[in-house]
Hints:
alpha+beta; Immunoglobulin-like; 33% strand; 21% helix; single chain
Amino acid sequence: MFETILNEEERGQVGIGTLIVFIAMVLVAAIAAGVLINTAGFLQTQAEATGEESTSQVADRLQIVSQSGNVTDLDIDGNGPERAIDTLQLTVAQSPGAGNIDLTEVSVELIGTGGQVNGELASDNITMFTGDGDEVVLTDNSDRAEIVLNLNSSGTFGYNNDASTDGGLQAGDSLSVTFTTASGASTSTELRVPTTLTDEQTSVRL
């Protein structure tokens, strides 16, 4: 049944050299597999982090529900008091799909005919309508907060470089307001003051 091999030259040779080569090949394959697994894990982690950050930059935005201004007498151009807007009131909420938004980490940029102003919101600028009154964080789509921007020269967002006159918006002025959250998501709105502000008006929608 089995053929007896009498010729020594036809016998298989399995020496220590062959065994060393075999073990070396196994080790190289194991090391290569480990490197590939580690690299794949690192790339997966990096991709997940990048995806979360990208999603936050798009989704974690403020939604502006309403916007109005307080009307009072101001001397903006040095020609005497006239009806103008000294503070802005903007009611904000979370955009759909947004995560928690800490309003004290939100930056504000104002650009208009009177120049450009940048600043960050403080708790004094914010009034929470819903949620925990001690925290200025939007955690739910039903949460609402009012942001007040003082445009007067002595205010936190003084909209006038001339300290001798008041800061604010005159009739017919326009102003672009941009809110940027900590994740980098921006929301902009264009405010336009009516061409006429009467003595009877104390507040006006913008």
